[in-house]
Design goal:
Its EC number is 3.1.3.48. By secondary structure, the protein is α/β, with parallel strands linked by helices. The chain is built from 16 helices and seven strands.
Protein backbone atom coordinates (compact mmCIF):
# COMPACT_ATOMS: atom_id res chain seq x y z
CA UNK A 1 0.00 0.00 0.00
CA UNK A 2 1.31 3.40 -0.96
CA UNK A 3 2.25 6.17 1.41
CA UNK A 4 -0.46 8.71 2.16
CA UNK A 5 2.07 11.44 1.35
CA UNK A 6 2.42 10.11 -2.19
CA UNK A 7 -1.31 9.72 -2.70
CA UNK A 8 -2.50 13.05 -1.45
CA UNK A 9 -0.29 15.69 -3.02
CA UNK A 10 -2.70 18.56 -3.45
CA UNK A 11 -1.26 20.02 -6.63
CA UNK A 12 -1.24 16.80 -8.63
CA UNK A 13 -4.79 15.89 -7.64
CA UNK A 14 -6.44 19.28 -7.86
CA UNK A 15 -9.69 18.64 -9.77
CA UNK A 16 -9.40 21.88 -11.73
CA UNK A 17 -6.22 20.60 -13.37
CA UNK A 18 -7.76 17.45 -14.83
CA UNK A 19 -7.88 17.35 -18.62
CA UNK A 20 -11.27 17.46 -20.26
CA UNK A 21 -12.00 16.11 -23.72
CA UNK A 22 -15.37 16.63 -25.35
CA UNK A 23 -16.99 15.26 -28.45
CA UNK A 24 -16.12 18.42 -30.36
CA UNK A 25 -12.40 17.65 -29.92
CA UNK A 26 -12.91 14.58 -32.13
CA UNK A 27 -15.33 16.11 -34.59
CA UNK A 28 -14.31 13.79 -37.43
CA UNK A 29 -15.02 10.67 -35.39
CA UNK A 30 -18.17 9.14 -34.08
CA UNK A 31 -18.46 8.83 -30.33
CA UNK A 32 -20.47 6.06 -28.70
CA UNK A 33 -21.52 6.87 -25.14
CA UNK A 34 -22.71 3.73 -23.30
CA UNK A 35 -24.80 4.60 -20.24
CA UNK A 36 -25.00 1.70 -17.83
CA UNK A 37 -27.15 0.86 -14.85
CA UNK A 38 -25.26 -1.03 -12.15
CA UNK A 39 -27.40 -3.33 -10.00
CA UNK A 40 -28.90 -6.29 -11.86
CA UNK A 41 -27.06 -5.17 -14.99
CA UNK A 42 -23.29 -5.04 -14.53
CA UNK A 43 -23.51 -6.80 -11.19
CA UNK A 44 -26.01 -9.02 -9.41
CA UNK A 45 -26.65 -8.13 -5.77
CA UNK A 46 -30.22 -7.15 -4.97
CA UNK A 47 -31.59 -10.24 -6.71
CA UNK A 48 -29.19 -12.39 -4.67
CA UNK A 49 -30.21 -10.75 -1.40
CA UNK A 50 -33.96 -11.10 -2.01
CA UNK A 51 -33.74 -14.52 -3.64
CA UNK A 52 -35.33 -13.55 -6.97
CA UNK A 53 -32.27 -14.55 -8.99
CA UNK A 54 -32.35 -18.15 -7.73
CA UNK A 55 -36.14 -18.35 -7.83
CA UNK A 56 -36.03 -17.75 -11.58
CA UNK A 57 -34.33 -21.14 -12.00
CA UNK A 58 -37.33 -23.07 -10.62
CA UNK A 59 -35.54 -24.97 -7.88
CA UNK A 60 -32.24 -25.73 -9.61
CA UNK A 61 -30.39 -23.13 -7.54
CA UNK A 62 -30.07 -22.89 -3.78
CA UNK A 63 -31.92 -19.71 -2.81
CA UNK A 64 -30.30 -19.46 0.63
CA UNK A 65 -26.82 -19.77 -0.85
CA UNK A 66 -27.52 -16.76 -3.06
CA UNK A 67 -28.80 -14.78 -0.09
CA UNK A 68 -25.68 -15.67 1.90
CA UNK A 69 -23.45 -14.57 -0.99
CA UNK A 70 -25.32 -11.29 -1.22
CA UNK A 71 -24.92 -10.68 2.51
CA UNK A 72 -21.17 -11.26 2.26
CA UNK A 73 -20.92 -8.66 -0.49
CA UNK A 74 -23.06 -6.26 1.54
CA UNK A 75 -20.73 -6.65 4.53
CA UNK A 76 -17.60 -5.94 2.48
CA UNK A 77 -19.17 -2.97 0.70
CA UNK A 78 -20.18 -1.28 3.95
CA UNK A 79 -16.85 -2.09 5.62
CA UNK A 80 -14.79 -0.50 2.84
CA UNK A 81 -17.17 2.47 2.64
CA UNK A 82 -16.60 3.17 6.33
CA UNK A 83 -12.92 2.29 6.60
CA UNK A 84 -11.60 3.92 3.45
CA UNK A 85 -14.23 6.22 1.90
CA UNK A 86 -15.41 8.39 4.83
CA UNK A 87 -18.91 6.96 4.60
CA UNK A 88 -19.76 7.28 8.28
CA UNK A 89 -18.97 11.00 8.05
CA UNK A 90 -20.65 11.82 4.73
CA UNK A 91 -23.41 9.24 4.30
CA UNK A 92 -26.09 11.93 4.51
CA UNK A 93 -24.33 14.29 2.11
CA UNK A 94 -24.76 12.43 -1.17
CA UNK A 95 -23.74 14.18 -4.37
CA UNK A 96 -24.40 13.03 -7.95
CA UNK A 97 -20.68 13.14 -8.87
CA UNK A 98 -17.33 13.24 -7.08
CA UNK A 99 -16.57 16.38 -9.07
CA UNK A 100 -19.79 18.14 -8.00
CA UNK A 101 -17.91 20.31 -5.47
CA UNK A 102 -14.53 20.56 -7.16
CA UNK A 103 -14.78 24.35 -7.42
CA UNK A 104 -14.55 24.45 -3.61
CA UNK A 105 -11.34 22.38 -3.53
CA UNK A 106 -8.44 24.80 -3.19
CA UNK A 107 -5.83 22.13 -3.95
CA UNK A 108 -4.44 22.02 -0.43
CA UNK A 109 -1.88 19.29 0.30
CA UNK A 110 -3.87 16.83 2.44
CA UNK A 111 -1.04 14.54 3.56
CA UNK A 112 -1.19 15.92 7.13
CA UNK A 113 -4.90 16.76 7.15
CA UNK A 114 -6.85 15.24 10.04
CA UNK A 115 -10.23 14.26 8.64
CA UNK A 116 -11.39 13.03 12.04
CA UNK A 117 -11.17 16.50 13.58
CA UNK A 118 -12.34 18.98 10.94
CA UNK A 119 -15.99 18.75 12.03
CA UNK A 120 -17.50 18.28 8.57
CA UNK A 121 -21.25 18.83 8.55
CA UNK A 122 -24.03 19.46 6.06
CA UNK A 123 -22.47 21.25 3.07
CA UNK A 124 -24.73 24.32 3.05
CA UNK A 125 -21.85 26.77 3.41
CA UNK A 126 -18.57 27.17 1.54
CA UNK A 127 -16.43 25.86 4.40
CA UNK A 128 -18.24 22.53 4.66
CA UNK A 129 -18.41 22.25 0.89
CA UNK A 130 -14.63 22.52 0.89
CA UNK A 131 -14.33 19.82 3.57
CA UNK A 132 -16.55 17.52 1.55
CA UNK A 133 -14.63 18.34 -1.64
CA UNK A 134 -11.41 17.31 0.12
CA UNK A 135 -12.92 13.93 0.93
CA UNK A 136 -14.14 13.52 -2.63
CA UNK A 137 -10.62 14.21 -3.86
CA UNK A 138 -9.17 11.48 -1.64
CA UNK A 139 -11.90 9.04 -2.68
CA UNK A 140 -11.21 9.76 -6.35
CA UNK A 141 -7.50 9.20 -5.90
CA UNK A 142 -7.98 5.92 -4.04
CA UNK A 143 -10.31 4.79 -6.82
CA UNK A 144 -7.64 5.60 -9.38
CA UNK A 145 -4.98 3.74 -7.39
CA UNK A 146 -6.99 0.50 -7.36
CA UNK A 147 -8.31 -1.82 -4.69
CA UNK A 148 -5.02 -3.63 -4.07
CA UNK A 149 -3.44 -0.34 -2.97
CA UNK A 150 -6.22 0.31 -0.46
CA UNK A 151 -6.86 -2.95 1.40
CA UNK A 152 -4.58 -5.61 2.89
CA UNK A 153 -3.71 -8.91 1.24
CA UNK A 154 -5.96 -11.04 3.48
CA UNK A 155 -9.02 -8.96 2.64
CA UNK A 156 -8.05 -9.01 -1.03
CA UNK A 157 -7.91 -12.81 -0.92
CA UNK A 158 -11.38 -12.93 0.69
CA UNK A 159 -12.76 -10.69 -2.05
CA UNK A 160 -11.13 -12.69 -4.83
CA UNK A 161 -12.64 -15.88 -3.39
CA UNK A 162 -16.06 -14.25 -3.04
CA UNK A 163 -15.92 -12.99 -6.62
CA UNK A 164 -15.17 -16.52 -7.86
CA UNK A 165 -17.92 -18.02 -5.66
CA UNK A 166 -20.44 -15.49 -7.01
CA UNK A 167 -19.27 -16.11 -10.54
CA UNK A 168 -19.87 -19.84 -10.29
CA UNK A 169 -23.24 -19.42 -8.59
CA UNK A 170 -24.49 -17.00 -11.28
CA UNK A 171 -23.39 -19.26 -14.15
CA UNK A 172 -20.53 -16.90 -15.01
CA UNK A 173 -22.66 -13.77 -15.24
CA UNK A 174 -19.39 -12.27 -14.10
CA UNK A 175 -17.25 -14.47 -16.44
CA UNK A 176 -18.46 -16.28 -19.61
CA UNK A 177 -16.94 -16.00 -23.07
CA UNK A 178 -14.59 -13.20 -22.08
CA UNK A 179 -11.66 -14.31 -24.20
CA UNK A 180 -13.43 -13.88 -27.53
CA UNK A 181 -15.06 -10.65 -26.43
CA UNK A 182 -11.71 -9.21 -25.33
CA UNK A 183 -10.06 -10.16 -28.62
CA UNK A 184 -12.73 -8.21 -30.48
CA UNK A 185 -11.52 -4.93 -29.01
CA UNK A 186 -7.84 -5.30 -29.81
CA UNK A 187 -6.33 -3.09 -32.49
CA UNK A 188 -4.73 -5.17 -35.29
CA UNK A 189 -1.00 -5.53 -34.72
CA UNK A 190 -1.28 -5.56 -30.94
CA UNK A 191 -2.95 -8.95 -30.51
CA UNK A 192 0.03 -11.28 -30.15
CA UNK A 193 1.96 -8.85 -27.95
CA UNK A 194 -0.96 -8.16 -25.62
CA UNK A 195 -1.95 -11.80 -25.19
CA UNK A 196 1.54 -12.55 -23.91
CA UNK A 197 1.51 -9.65 -21.43
CA UNK A 198 -2.17 -9.31 -20.46
CA UNK A 199 -2.40 -9.46 -16.63
CA UNK A 200 -5.58 -11.55 -16.42
CA UNK A 201 -6.53 -15.11 -17.24
CA UNK A 202 -9.16 -14.65 -19.95
CA UNK A 203 -11.37 -17.29 -18.34
CA UNK A 204 -11.58 -15.23 -15.16
CA UNK A 205 -12.87 -12.08 -16.83
CA UNK A 206 -16.57 -11.42 -16.43
CA UNK A 207 -18.96 -11.34 -19.34
CA UNK A 208 -20.24 -7.95 -18.22
CA UNK A 209 -16.67 -6.74 -17.70
CA UNK A 210 -15.66 -8.14 -21.09
CA UNK A 211 -18.41 -6.14 -22.76
CA UNK A 212 -17.15 -3.00 -21.04
CA UNK A 213 -13.65 -3.74 -22.34
CA UNK A 214 -15.09 -4.22 -25.78
CA UNK A 215 -16.92 -0.90 -25.66
CA UNK A 216 -14.23 1.18 -23.97
CA UNK A 217 -10.94 0.44 -22.34
CA UNK A 218 -10.07 2.11 -19.08
CA UNK A 219 -7.00 3.15 -17.17
CA UNK A 220 -4.91 0.05 -17.96
CA UNK A 221 -5.45 0.31 -21.71
CA UNK A 222 -2.53 -0.32 -24.04
CA UNK A 223 -3.72 -0.05 -27.64
CA UNK A 224 -5.91 3.00 -27.02
CA UNK A 225 -5.43 6.14 -24.97
CA UNK A 226 -8.03 6.76 -22.27
CA UNK A 227 -8.38 10.46 -21.55
CA UNK A 228 -8.93 11.93 -18.10
CA UNK A 229 -12.70 11.86 -18.54
CA UNK A 230 -12.70 8.21 -19.58
CA UNK A 231 -13.12 8.74 -23.32
CA UNK A 232 -11.16 6.16 -25.27
CA UNK A 233 -9.40 7.67 -28.26
CA UNK A 234 -7.96 5.41 -30.91
CA UNK A 235 -5.74 6.47 -33.76
CA UNK A 236 -6.71 3.25 -35.57
CA UNK A 237 -10.46 3.51 -34.97
CA UNK A 238 -13.14 5.62 -36.58
CA UNK A 239 -14.91 6.11 -33.26
CA UNK A 240 -14.29 7.05 -29.65
CA UNK A 241 -16.10 5.30 -26.82
CA UNK A 242 -16.90 5.94 -23.20
CA UNK A 243 -18.64 4.00 -20.47
CA UNK A 244 -20.84 6.00 -18.08
CA UNK A 245 -22.48 4.55 -14.98
CA UNK A 246 -25.75 6.06 -13.74
CA UNK A 247 -26.92 4.28 -10.62
CA UNK A 248 -29.93 4.84 -8.40
CA UNK A 249 -27.75 4.07 -5.39
CA UNK A 250 -25.85 6.68 -3.41
CA UNK A 251 -22.47 7.67 -4.78
CA UNK A 252 -19.93 6.29 -2.30
CA UNK A 253 -21.30 2.72 -2.08
CA UNK A 254 -21.62 2.71 -5.88
CA UNK A 255 -17.94 3.60 -6.27
CA UNK A 256 -17.06 0.85 -3.80
CA UNK A 257 -19.13 -1.65 -5.80
CA UNK A 258 -17.12 -0.71 -8.89
CA UNK A 259 -14.02 -1.35 -6.82
CA UNK A 260 -15.08 -4.74 -5.52
CA UNK A 261 -16.62 -6.03 -8.74
CA UNK A 262 -13.49 -5.14 -10.77
CA UNK A 263 -15.05 -2.36 -12.83
CA UNK A 264 -12.85 0.50 -11.64
CA UNK A 265 -10.36 0.21 -14.50
CA UNK A 266 -13.20 0.26 -17.04
CA UNK A 267 -15.37 3.05 -15.65
CA UNK A 268 -13.48 6.14 -14.49
CA UNK A 269 -14.72 7.75 -11.28
CA UNK A 270 -15.50 10.94 -13.23
CA UNK A 271 -18.04 8.85 -15.14
CA UNK A 272 -19.97 7.49 -12.14
CA UNK A 273 -23.25 9.35 -11.50
CA UNK A 274 -25.63 8.86 -8.59
CA UNK A 275 -29.27 9.62 -9.42
CA UNK A 276 -30.31 9.07 -5.79
CA UNK A 277 -31.36 12.70 -5.22
CA UNK A 278 -31.85 14.05 -8.74
CA UNK A 279 -33.29 11.18 -10.80
CA UNK A 280 -31.97 9.54 -13.94
CA UNK A 281 -33.53 12.00 -16.41
CA UNK A 282 -31.47 14.82 -14.84
CA UNK A 283 -28.28 12.74 -14.95
CA UNK A 284 -28.95 11.83 -18.58
CA UNK A 285 -29.42 15.49 -19.47
CA UNK A 286 -26.08 16.32 -17.84
CA UNK A 287 -24.42 13.56 -19.83
CA UNK A 288 -25.95 14.85 -23.06
CA UNK A 289 -24.66 18.35 -22.33
CA UNK A 290 -21.22 16.99 -21.47
CA UNK A 291 -20.75 14.88 -24.58
CA UNK A 292 -23.11 16.55 -27.02
CA UNK A 293 -21.86 16.89 -30.59
CA UNK A 294 -22.89 16.16 -34.17
CA UNK A 295 -21.40 12.66 -34.20
CA UNK A 296 -22.30 11.44 -30.70
CA UNK A 297 -24.50 8.37 -30.26
CA UNK A 298 -25.93 7.45 -26.85
CA UNK A 299 -27.13 4.03 -25.77
CA UNK A 300 -28.64 3.07 -22.40
CA UNK A 301 -28.16 -0.43 -20.97
CA UNK A 302 -30.06 -1.41 -17.85
CA UNK A 303 -32.84 -3.42 -16.25
CA UNK A 304 -35.15 -0.92 -14.54
CA UNK A 305 -38.02 1.42 -15.26
CA UNK A 306 -35.99 4.52 -14.36
CA UNK A 307 -33.51 4.18 -17.20
CA UNK A 308 -36.34 3.14 -19.51
CA UNK A 309 -38.24 6.33 -18.71
CA UNK A 310 -35.14 8.50 -18.96
CA UNK A 311 -34.10 6.92 -22.28
CA UNK A 312 -37.58 7.60 -23.69
CA UNK A 313 -37.37 11.24 -22.61
CA UNK A 314 -33.97 11.62 -24.29
CA UNK A 315 -35.03 9.53 -27.33
CA UNK A 316 -32.02 7.27 -26.83
CA UNK A 317 -31.95 3.52 -27.57
CA UNK A 318 -32.37 1.20 -24.59
CA UNK A 319 -31.09 -2.35 -24.25
CA UNK A 320 -33.11 -3.89 -21.41
CA UNK A 321 -31.25 -6.44 -19.29
CA UNK A 322 -33.16 -9.31 -17.70
CA UNK A 323 -31.37 -11.64 -15.27
CA UNK A 324 -33.99 -14.39 -15.61
CA UNK A 325 -32.87 -17.48 -17.54
CA UNK A 326 -35.42 -16.69 -20.25
CA UNK A 327 -34.27 -13.07 -20.55
CA UNK A 328 -33.45 -11.99 -24.10
CA UNK A 329 -30.56 -9.71 -23.05
CA UNK A 330 -28.40 -10.89 -20.17
CA UNK A 331 -24.85 -11.85 -19.33
CA UNK A 332 -23.39 -13.93 -20.84
CA UNK A 333 -24.72 -13.18 -24.30
CA UNK A 334 -24.90 -9.44 -24.84
CA UNK A 335 -22.46 -8.28 -27.51
CA UNK A 336 -21.57 -5.04 -29.23
CA UNK A 337 -23.28 -6.33 -32.38
CA UNK A 338 -26.59 -6.48 -30.52
CA UNK A 339 -26.09 -3.06 -28.95
CA UNK A 340 -25.01 -1.70 -32.34
CA UNK A 341 -28.32 -2.78 -33.82
CA UNK A 342 -30.27 -0.85 -31.18
CA UNK A 343 -28.10 2.20 -31.84
CA UNK A 344 -28.64 1.94 -35.59
CA UNK A 345 -32.42 1.83 -35.18
CA UNK A 346 -32.32 5.33 -33.68
CA UNK A 347 -29.33 6.91 -35.39
CA UNK A 348 -29.13 5.06 -38.72
CA UNK A 349 -32.63 3.80 -39.47
CA UNK A 350 -31.84 3.04 -43.12
CA UNK A 351 -29.06 0.66 -42.04
CA UNK A 352 -31.24 -1.19 -39.54
CA UNK A 353 -33.97 -1.60 -42.18
CA UNK A 354 -31.41 -3.10 -44.55
CA UNK A 355 -30.26 -5.53 -41.84
CA UNK A 356 -33.84 -6.73 -41.39
CA UNK A 357 -34.26 -7.58 -45.09
Amino acid sequence: MQSIDVLLDGDSMHPGKRAKITAQDSSNKKMNVYIWDMDETLILLKSLLNGTYAEGFNGSKDVQKGIDIGKMWEKHILQICDDHFFYEQIENYNKPLLDSLREYDDGKDLSDYDFSKDGVSSPHDDLNKKKLAYRHRIIGHKYEQGLRNVIDQDTMKQLDDLYELTDRYTDRWLSSGAKNLYLLLLVPGYVSRLISTFPYDFSDLSAARAFLEQSSEGKNSTPHLAAANGVTESSDSKSDKVNILVTAGSLIPSLVKCFLFRLDDLIMHQNVYSSWDVGKPKCFSWIKDRFNGPNVQFCVIGDGWEECEAAQIMKWPLVQIDHRPSGSHRFPGLTLKTVGYYISVIYEPSNSESDEK
